[in-house]
From TrEMBL:
Location of this chain's protein in the cell: Preautophagosomal structure membrane
Protein name per Swiss-Prot or TrEMBL: Ubiquitin-like protein ATG12
Classification via InterPro entries: Atg12, Ubiquitin-like_domsf
MF terms (GO), sorted A to Z: Atg8-family ligase activity
Database matches in SUPFAM superfamilies: Ubiquitin-like (SSF54236)
CDD domains: Ubl_ATG12
Length: 118
């Protein structure tokens, strides 16, 4: 590569808009570092145990490991997929341990086609 190409590629990689200051650059670097940390996968897993309630079909396998950082919506979507249900089919999920887990570390999710409690 010629010297002009090297200088040009370095300038493109670290080029700042004319309104940026050194303080904004530090904040930008901090934000980029935070985003990189956020993008990393969380290796910790949680065991989810599904229990059918009422007339809901019973799953052949009811223990699954999911990534701990997943939202509960991901658990519901996974359950729908395993049951073969479409997004419009009724599915009600109950978790007794909304903010904490039971003693064996499993998250127990009861599921039904209708509201079973309350």
């Amino acid at each position: 590569m010629s010297e002009a190409e090297t200088t040009s590629s370095e300038a493109t990689a670290h080029q700042l808009p004319p309104w940026a200051t050194a303080a904004q650059t530090d904040i930008n670097d901090e934000a980029l570092a935070a985003l990189e940390t956020y993008k990393k996968r969380d290796p910790s897993k949680v065991v989810v145990r599904f229990k059918a309630v009422g007339n809901a079909p019973i799953m052949k396998q009811n223990f699954y490991k999911i990534t701990a950082s997943n939202r509960f919506q991901a658990v519901i979507q996974f359950l729908r997929k395993e049951l073969g249900w479409k997004s419009g089919d009724p599915l009600v999920c109950f978790s007794r341990w909304v903010f904490s887990f039971c003693t064996d570390g499993h998250l127990i999710v009861n599921y039904s086609t209708t509201a079973a409690w309350g």
